[in-house]
Amino acid sequence: MGRPTVDVILTDGERETLQRWARRRTSSQALALRCRIVLACGTGASNTQVGADLGVHPVTVAKWRRRFAAARLEGLVDETRPGALRTVTDERVEEVIVRTLESAPPGATHWSTRSMAESAGLSQSTVSRIWRTFGLKPHLVDTFKLSTDPQFIDKVRDIVGLYLAPPEHALVLCVDEKSQIQALDRSAPVLPMMPGMPERRTHDYLRNGTTTLFAALNVSTGEVIGQIHRRHRAAEFKKFLVRIDKEVPQELEVHLICDNYATHKTPAIQRWLVAHPRFHMHFTPTYSSWLNQVERWFALLSERRIRRGVHKNVQALERDIRSWIKHWNEDPKPFIWVKTADEILERLAGYLNRVKDSGHELY
């Protein structure tokens, strides 16, 4: 007589889930077939009839009928398999990590997967898996510069406070100049990108002069006020302040975040600020340009418009810069500052505690 057939009774939720799993593109073919088998069994069809309709053996239909009846939807998922036993012990893993962090190979400044594998007696792929698991990248180096400003903490709190809680009836502008922007032309025409081939250009270039961009980034809206000059003296910075004064409504206070460049502090600038009391200067700590959001905007300008541009003269370069500013201001996007001053100082203090004899202290 054979084994009795297990009845499959589906709830509305199970039927909807099975239909969704059977249709979606991300499901494996095996899982989609199992879903169709169970759905067909839910109509009361026999194993032989379901097998004939779906092109599978009736024994396969009976298997997934039983699995679903016993474990419902979870029974359709493949069971985890134990796999092969580990051949690398925890002690060997610890040895690789300690060597990577605390030593260097003979004749080199850092380990590679090949040199570490040879030294530790492991395969290169094993060393690579250990490094990936623990986030070790000996080939990468980041640079940093610690500020020696005695007012570092006060300045950080002042500027971050402007970002996170700007004053009412006031405008916060991040101001700086991008000087020595070079108009570069290639020694041969650029070869355009083609299918299977990137854009190609000569490694050498021709210098056709430089220009300077003064920019003020509105922290709240992302809009940029820009002005181009061929030089970046205090006289040009004063002209830029006059430009800002004209464009910002007179009823608003203006808070300018600047770096410690000498042209921002000359007597002429100080006299202008005294004559315009609605302007308030906030200086970033020394070696801390990362606090000024306009630097991030300058990076976008270089990446998207200048670095790969070809300019036969300074006028062409300046046209591209003005075009970029106009395009940006049509749909400006402000940078969202999320770190509080306490979080920044806490992270810096943790770094200084890890570095022996750093010579820096935070109070």
Description:
With 363 residues, this protein is an alpha/beta fold. The chain has three domains: 12-76; 90-134; 159-192 and 202-352, 2-Layer Sandwich (Nucleotidyltransferase, domain 5), CATH 3.30.420. Helices cover 44% and strands 13% of the residues. It contains 13 helices and five strands. The protein has helices spanning 12-23, 29-41, 47-54, 58-71, 90-102, 113-120, 124-134, 152-164, 234-247, 267-275, 294-306, 314-330, 341-354; strands spanning 170-186, 205-218, 224-229, 253-258, 279-283. The chain has a five-stranded mixed β-sheet. Strand 4, helix 10 and strand 5 form a beta-alpha-beta unit. Helix 1 (12-23) runs antiparallel to helix 2, helix 2 packs across helix 4 and helix 6 packs across helix 7 (124-134). The longest helix has 17 residues, at 314-330. The chain starts with 11 loop residues before the first helix and ends in a 9-residue tail after the last helix.
Sheet/helix structural class = alpha/beta
Indicate how many domains the architecture comprises. Answer: 3
Biggest beta sheet summary:
5 strands, mixed
Q: What is the N-to-C order of secondary-structure elements (H for helix, E for strand)?
A: HHHHHHHHEEEHEHEHHH
**Shape verdict:** elongated
CATH top-level class of the largest domain = Alpha Beta
**CATH topology of the largest domain, which one?**
Nucleotidyltransferase, domain 5
Low-confidence stretches: none
Q: How many whole angstroms does the radius of gyration measure?
A: 33 Å
| Approximate helicity band | 40-55%
The count of strands amounts to 5
* Overall average residue pLDDT: 88
CATH superfamily of the largest domain: Ribonuclease H-like superfamily/Ribonuclease H
Return the CATH architecture of the largest domain.
2-Layer Sandwich
- Number of alpha- plus pi-helical segments: 13
Across the major sheet, the strand order is 3-2-1-4-5
